[in-house]
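Practice problem 4.
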């Protein structure tokens, strides 16, 4: 048995799992480990064009487990692809359940990492690699669960469908195509949202079902100037300096504090299970949302500021045309995560007001942002998720939550499909480094994912 498998099983039994893993879960672990190693090695980043090959790899695995070729579809979309897998139910009159994930990952420069980002590495109870947390472990866990159920001969009453996108981290063109084709569904379960929180001692604090998410929007700031020879500098006509002043004003600005029933419930639960100034502020804000001091303490934490405000941050810069010339143009991307109910146009107007400079042009970057409503909490979904989580962590509080980031769910919500983020993974705040350097996931979450998805899907489709 490999060291990664011994570690995965050991951590699950000793540190997190309240019950012995099912025998079939333990049997599935070696296969999932091999598939995850292959998944991390697949550089499914923008520009590499490796998503179609990865989708074909998953399709081959599913076919080897007994899925008919006719039930597996790879949909080419521009330079990427989507994967759809049908698991037919016995009652054709029932709408299927969609299971969402994405096969692509954010770019990673190996020179910046302490470990090779495209090699699955195990150290000190963690698995490292680009996509291990966001979200190839979940894609592989769902794939393995479909394979496992098929091999067991399980016939669900309600059908299920994997809908894996290929560019969730960028243009979401494949997501739009999936939502266009498969919006006649009972509901969608998204493995890329929701999930549980550990405290510093790996004690479970709370589990959130994502029922809403912020609107994703990119704005381009553009400044132009006459340019000229670099030996004759004119600070007042320098596009880069001009743009820098605008960026400084955005950096210094905070959007107003906001709240909803979902965010208040989430903050209340997290605060009640924590200690210290941040937990105190969460409890206070949940009871008194007009408390400015509590809001300031929460907003100072990067993990929670998005629960209280619209946020806008500079993410990319481009400027100048020659090393020895004054810049004629400078551009910056401002990435905004907009609180539900706030229009994209009003955020653009506020950025213009904050910058207070007609020489800085602001435009919305395509594709057009999607404003999607919160999904009503379904009792059958909440009850099934709660029962499944409680098998691992009895009594942990289950609350609705709002994602500060965007997920594939927004297109399905916009198409009328109730969507819920129900990832089984638990993590400490600010611990996975998703999208960042040295992305990691607790190794204990791998067997827990297999156990969770097998139990949850059979609960919902019997």
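Answer key:
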């Amino acid at each position: 048995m490999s060291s990664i498998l011994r570690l995965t099983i050991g951590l699950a039994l000793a540190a997190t799992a309240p019950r012995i893993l099912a025998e079939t879960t333990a049997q599935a672990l070696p296969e999932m480990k091999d598939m995850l190693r292959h998944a991390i090695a697949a550089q499914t980043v923008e520009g590499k064009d490796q998503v179609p090959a990865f989708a074909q790899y998953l399709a081959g695995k599913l076919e080897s487990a007994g899925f008919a070729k006719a039930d597996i579809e790879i949909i080419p979309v521009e330079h990427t692809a989507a994967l759809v897998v049908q698991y037919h139910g016995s009652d054709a009159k029932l709408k299927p359940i969609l299971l969402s994930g994405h096969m692509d990952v954010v770019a990673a420069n190996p020179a910046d990492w302490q470990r090779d980002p495209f090699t699955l590495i195990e150290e000190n109870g963690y698995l490292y690699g680009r996509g291990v947390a966001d979200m190839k472990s979940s894609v592989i866990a769902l794939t393995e669960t479909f394979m496992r159920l098929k091999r067991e001969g399980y016939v669900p009453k309600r059908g299920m469908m994997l809908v894996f996108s290929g560019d969730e981290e960028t243009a979401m063109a494949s997501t739009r195509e999936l939502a266009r084709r498969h919006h006649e569904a009972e509901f969608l379960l998204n493995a890329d949202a929701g999930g549980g929180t550990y405290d510093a001692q790996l004690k479970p604090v709370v589990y959130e079902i994502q029922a809403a998410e912020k609107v994703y929007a990119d704005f381009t700031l553009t400044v132009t100037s006459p340019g000229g020879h670099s030996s004759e500098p004119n600070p007042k006509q320098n596009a880069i300096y001009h743009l820098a002043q605008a960026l400084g004003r955005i950096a210094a600005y905070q959007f107003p504090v906001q709240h909803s029933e979902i965010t208040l419930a989430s903050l209340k639960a997290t605060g009640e299970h924590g200690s210290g100034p941040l937990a105190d502020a969460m409890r206070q804000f949940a009871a008194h949302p007009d408390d400015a001091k509590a809001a300031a303490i929460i907003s100072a934490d990067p993990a929670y500021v998005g629960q209280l405000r619209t946020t806008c941050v500079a993410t990319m810069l481009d400027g100048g045309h020659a090393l020895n010339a004054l810049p004629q143009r400078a551009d910056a991307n401002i990435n905004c995560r907009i609180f539900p109910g706030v229009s994209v146009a009003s955020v653009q107007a506020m950025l213009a007001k904050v910058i207070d400079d007609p020489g800085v042009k602001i435009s919305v970057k395509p594709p057009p942002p999607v404003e999607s409503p919160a999904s009503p909490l379904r009792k059958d979904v909440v009850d099934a998720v709660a029962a499944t989580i409680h098998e691992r962590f009895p009594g942990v509080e289950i609350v609705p939550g709002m994602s500060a980031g965007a997920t594939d769910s927004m297109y399905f919500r916009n198409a009328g499909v109730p969507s819920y983020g129900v990832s089984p993974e638990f993590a400490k705040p600010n611990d996975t480094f998703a999208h960042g350097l040295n992305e990691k996931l607790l190794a204990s979450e791998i067997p827990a994912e297999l156990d969770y998805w097998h139990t949850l899907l059979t609960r919902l489709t019997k």
